[in-house]
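Q: Could you write out the predicted structure for this multi-component system? I'm mainly interested in how the pieces pack against one another.
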Amino acid sequence: MIIAVTGTPGVGKTTVSKLLSERLGYDYVSVKDFALERGLGEPAGDEVEIDVDALAKEAGAAFQDEDVVIDGHLSHHVPADLVVVLRLHPKDVAERLKARGYPRKKLAENVEAELIDVILVEALERNGNVLEVDTTGKTPEEVVEEILALIDGGVKRRVGVVDWSNAYDDILPYLMLGND
Ligand SMILES: Nc1ncnc2c1ncn2[C@@H]1O[C@H](COP(=O)(O)OP(=O)(O)OP(=O)(O)O)[C@@H](O)[C@H]1O
């Protein structure tokens, strides 16, 4: 089974993916490492620009009969049996990315993306089996327990668990609002 773990930068994908793969006895795969190994990504500054169509094709073929947890904010492009979209209150996203030293513009773009569900919408456009999980205020272990309970219960789709529309005032200081 292929499980893709996606979400806005900083929501905890790597932490949760590693723990989830250990609990399930699955291999852990980083999209970024896979793309670099296969020559599907070009380093661009401290980022990697990945050809998502090539990623979908190559990862789909490489892992089709494997049990893997695929980690990365592009992992929902890979044909997966299940896509887990991790969500985190945009203010917490902002604080985590700030602590990582993200430049103001990049921080604002990602906080806004979390606010308006960008990754969730992309995931739903590509895959019917989407589990949305709110990680806000939860430990990585609690998040993994929630995912495992959904999988054990045979749940293939659960979306609509968060609504960040009330978060706007909290995150205004982090947004650029056209001032770039
Ligand atoms: N549930 C959690 N509670 C508190 N802190 C967490 C939680 N999950 C992850 N973190 C912390 O948040 C930071 C970001 O986590 P992580 O690298 O797993 O996120 P990510 O979504 O994989 O980020 P990126 O997309 O940039 O790779 C790390 O410092 C991690 O220790």
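A: Regarding packing and overall arrangement: The two ends are 43 Å apart (CA to CA).
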